[in-house]
Amino acid sequence: MKKVSVIGSTGSIGKKAVDLLLHNREEYKVIALSAYSNFALLTHQAKLLDAEYVVISNKEFYKNLKEELLGTNIKIEADLINIAAIPVELLIVAVVGIAGLEPVIHAIENGTKTIALANKESIVCGGKLLFKKAKENGTQIIPIDSEHSAIFQILENNGQCIEKIILTASGGPFLNYSNEQLKNATINKALTHPTWNMGKKISIDSATMMNKALEVIEAHNLFDINPNKIEVIVHPESVIHGIAVYPDGTNFALMALPDMTLPISYAMSWPQRSALSCKLDLAKQNTLTFQAVDHERFPAVNLSIKVLNSHSPDVYSIVLNAANEVAVNAFLTLQIEFLEIIEVINLAIENFSNYTHISSLSDIIYIDRESRAITQEFIDNKTCNQKSLSM
User: Fold this and answer.
1) Whole-angstrom Cα distance, residue 247 to residue 22?
2) Binding site annotation covers 2?
3) Is 122 annotated for ligand binding?
4) Taking the domain 2-143, which CATH number applies?
5) Is 170 annotated as a binding-site member?
6) For the chain, domain boundaries
7) What catalytic reaction does the record list (predicted)?
8) Contact 240, 254 (CB under 8 A)
9) Is 312 in contact with 367 (CB distance < 8 Å)?
10) Is 211 part of any known ligand binding site?
11) How many CB atoms lie within 10 A of CB 70?
12) What is the structure's pLDDT at 365?
């Protein structure tokens, strides 16, 4: 049986991973599960899967978790680092944000050989350091993002001499909004994705297309490809997930239903494939449409290319990610308007200039912390100015 742990088992990706583990119990032995605050679901999952360890990141719920697990043999570890340090054959990382980076690096350093990674921020911020450690320790990183899973699968069979790769984007809930409508975009509308069922943060990222900006950086780091060879195209049906283009004009595309079960299953069973019921019926797929990204209305993608072509792409990738996390939270808490998300991120990038080299996890954490402080300062200033104008 393959030993497996899931970091972030109560989120949208984590729940699908747990479902797959439940349906294939003869193949997997679950070592550890973690959640941020949903102690009730974590307890339920741990009992169903007979997990050995659990972690609740928000310590306010530690007592609740302990009470729920009374009478079981399931042990509660102090934090994510502890369970990441337990070597397993497969670690599924499904947490959101840079919080996933440190556990991933600890897992690599402690002998985990395959990491199924849905935490794009680890790849965006970890960059060269993450993949250097993975190479040194013989760790295979399998992306779970549907677009990167698609490219990974295509290039695994025929990755030589590609001309470029294309990441598809649904366009999010505001694809057909005018600039005027975007000025008044609400939180509820931003959270209502037309194709995917996702958590709040990534739903807002999809609405701004910052998710695609992060995925461009992720693709650059994952596949070691020149950023100018990475293209984004809007494909609202979300049936084609990624395309590899070759010099002779041949395009290899991966087609599948817009269901995260597929890339999760592929990452879990790699290098084999498991049988699933998620079948694409082409006869029912009346149309497949594509359109160029409108960079005026959605400037985030160009921002990622600007970062990757900067004098210090590793540093500014961290700044971009940190600023986005702070700005998205500010939008969700009504501190800034929708269009101000990208504006604030751009200001943070333009005003960060006090670091040039990354050689350790501590460097990444420092840059992340400084970037957050700068971003929050811009947000606070905007809030103060708005209050002054309204008085």
Assistant:
1) 44
2) no
3) no
4) 3.40.50.720
5) yes
6) 2-143, 147-390
7) 2-C-methyl-D-erythritol 4-phosphate + NADP(+) = 1-deoxy-D-xylulose 5-phosphate + NADPH + H(+)
8) yes
9) no
10) yes
11) 6
12) 93
Do residues 363 and 369 make contact, with C-beta atoms less than 8 angstroms apart? no
- CA separation for the pair 218, 18 (Å, rounded): 25
Tell whether 38 is in a known binding site: yes
* Helix intervals (H) in the chain: 12-23, 39-49, 62-68, 80-84, 101-109, 120-137, 146-158, 179-183, 187-190, 200-208, 210-223, 261-269, 300-308, 313-332, 340-351, 361-390
Starting at the earlier edge strand, list the strands of the sheet with 251-255: 251-255, 240-245, 164-169, 230-234, 291-292
Worst-scoring range by mean pLDDT, 156-165, 227-236, 352-361? 156-165
Consult the annotation and say whether 23 binds a ligand.
Answer: no
Read off the pLDDT band of 383 (50, 70, 90): low
Say yes or no to pLDDT of 296 above 80: yes
Does 147 belong to an annotated binding site?
yes
The residue count for the chain: 391
pTM to 2 decimal places: 0.88
Cβ atoms of 9 and 80 within 8 Å: the answer is no
For 166-206, write each residue's pLDDT tens digit: 999 988 888 889 988 998 888 888 888 777 777 788 899 99
- What is the identity of the amino acid at 242? G
Q: Provide the pLDDT confidence category of residue 390 given band limits of 50, 70 and 90.
A: very low
